[in-house]
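Minutes, project check-in

Agenda point 3 was the complex the collaborators sent over. CS summarized: two entities, 543 residues total, and the question is how they sit relative to each other. Sequences were read into the notes so everyone works from the same version.
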Amino acid sequence: MSWIVLIIALLVSMVWGIMFLRQLKTGLTTTALDDKFTWGLYVQGFFFFSALAGGILTFVGVVTLFELKSLNPLVEIGAAVSFGCLVAAGLLLGSDLGKPFRGTKILSGKNFASPLTWDFYMLSFCGLLIVLFLLGWIPKEGALTTLWSVLCLIAALGFVMIHTLFFLSRVGAGFRSQPFLGLDTLAQSLWGGMALITLIALSASITPVSMVRLLLIGTVLTLISLVGAQIAYLSNKRKGFDQKKIIGLDTFILVVLVLIQVFAPDNGFLLAVTSVLILAAVFMEKSHLMREYQVKPTLPLPYSRYEAAPEYAPTADEWILTLGSAGVCVFLSVAIIILRVS
Amino acid sequence: MRYGMVIDLQKCVGCNSCTVACRAEQGTPAGIHFHRVVKYEAGKYPNAKMRFLPMPCMHCQDPPCQKVCPTGATFMNGEGLVLIDPERCIGCRACMVACPYEARQFLWDLWTYFEGQLPTPYEQLKRKNYDKGTVVKCNFCIHRLEKGRKPACVETCPALARTFGDLDDPQSEVSRLIVLHRGAPFREELGTEPSVYYIRG
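CS then shared the predicted structure for the full assembly.
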């Protein structure tokens, strides 16, 4: 089964490679981006995959710190999947750059006021920590393990925090601010990470009962931050920050999880479907956040009176490249797991 | 020394000759304009008026675009000009998201003015200044300043609505106009400290 998944993921990864080469040749004109809507599906995907990587790495760090030995198989697989997600996030960010091969200039730029600089360092640090673990250089227990798990928590939560800084300048420029953005981004990351861990656990036939409860806590945290933001905007005359659909989906997930916990805590199928719904909800939120800060003209009225609100619908190329990155994520994760097992 | 510009909004007639002069001087590819004139309506019928707001890059002294640039491609020179080093730009477009004045554009492609045809000799000459996949913006015609000339938009303005000079020099014409007419930058409340001031708006 693993080999079939690996081969399919490899084929999808090859499609990514072809599309990336094509985009390199023709430039970003293959996208539906423009000067009014400068960040689109690629950056949404970057936020999505990096959020998942951060969530899983937080889980891995906590499990290692508490020495929960019954969950050790999940740590092994989780580290591999987290690495795959990090690579997919990096590839998507690379796809979004006008000059992707100049990416290393971030190192020599040393502009520590830029969230992108911190993101680059923290994501690289996360990748390094996972590689150390996958190479078997981190012992099962002891001082080094404790240090490693604490560093994992710092790195994972660190870049999740950095992702709340990306639109600060827009808020400064008079855009609506999201008062719960920090909590929302953190909660979504942990929630998505836990959902992916649940799917991994189910596929590996490891079903710790506490996963439903953990997902419930994640759902409540996420809902609280979203509903908080919605209440805050009820008093704002500038409407448009509408998260009702996402809140509706999250509420539905909460109800389903409660029902699963009460009536069918061992039902793997229901849990898997709910986990997929959670991943969809996390992606929807990332997509919404990206649109929220870009659809409104930067100039205030009346200067922007004749400006049309930008519309953005990703092109087929963007979708293929994004799904291709998901293929790379699956390929790397499965390949690492197979190599570790063998 | 800090270069700055004063724009007299009562003199501006919205002719866009500044925009055209800028395009000609900089040789920007089709679709790229370092300068634009925003038009808006003021008042209500029968006293409605069409007004114009010429907008070059504001060359802020606390520029948000410079803060977010991860490679240091956006920098400020000793004369207060916010410039881009195209060799360092990775095309992440974080500066475009950060700029509250929409002063920056991304070179999605080097489009020609005559679609489906080869670039004109002038376009060919100027195109070597532009690198697809990077961000561009107004540089106050720095190549002209180095020769002691004023930016093209200032020299071209038929209504003499623009004045250019040293904001640090209290005796300069720009400083005098700002004091005389209580000049103010656009969206001063953002705290970006622009070097472009508007008077009689």
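Noted in discussion: Chain A has a mean pLDDT of 89.
Follow-up: revisit at the next meeting once the mutant set is ready.
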